[in-house]
Amino acid sequence: MLVIEAHAERLNRADYRDWGGQSFTSGRLVSRGRARWREGYFEIRARLPCVAGTWPAAWLLPEYESSRWEGGEIDIFEHVGADPGKVHHSLQTATRNFRIGNHPTATSMVPDACTAFHTYQLLWTGSMIVMGVDGRIGFAMRRERLDRWFDRPMYLILNLAIGGHWGGPVDAGRLPASMQIDYVRVYGK
Questions:
Q1: Residue 37 in 3-state DSSP?
Q2: 73 catalytically annotated
Q3: Rounded to an integer, what distance in angstroms lies between the CA atom of residue 124 and that of residue 65?
Q4: Which of 5, 43, 63, 78 is catalytic?
Q5: CA-to-CA separations, 181 to 45, 71, 172, 173, in angstroms, rounded
């Protein structure tokens, strides 16, 4: 099992060149340069943390992107620990994104997301994108409804963010917290 764990701790800056002085550590796995896909069926079986300030996610970005959201972003799942059981599925582009507040998004209610494993899914084809949990569709979008289609090779990111604009204030007393991943499966066309 893959475990991405967040801790309340301060690091020695000299040991970690990307450390910015924050009081928390966590991690992410990125397939960029190792694996990329242009369409497919994705399954991520995971148990998510429900600690305020945690923000676990599985998402895709284009391997070659010159500016933010130019090639789009597919958020298979995002979960905000302060709002347990509400799983978000979204698509973002340069003209439709959370900063503007007009991106296609939907939620799936998964009351036991933090105590049980669930399978988070993405079906990405040339004509549609469908996301859901345990075989239940939570989001579906047809190509013609978007200003930009997701037609570039993309890489997968699995991460457990801490705090930030959406994660919010962190309940440091409840850390460590972890996202546990049983498996990730990707099927081609």
A1: strand
A2: yes
A3: 19
A4: 78
A5: 6, 27, 22, 23
> For residue 95, which of 59, 118, 67, 117 has the smallest C-alpha distance?
67
Identified catalytic residue from 9, 39, 73, 144? 73
pLDDT at 1 over 70: yes
Task: Give the tens place of pLDDT for each residue, 127-158.
Answer: 999 999 999 999 999 988 876 778 889 999 99
For the beta sheet containing 40-47, the strands, ordered from the edge strand earlier in sequence to the opposite edge, are 24-25, 2-8, 177-187, 40-47, 118-124, 128-133, 136-142
Active site residue 65: no
pLDDT at residue number 136:
98
The predicted pLDDT at position 164 comes to: 85
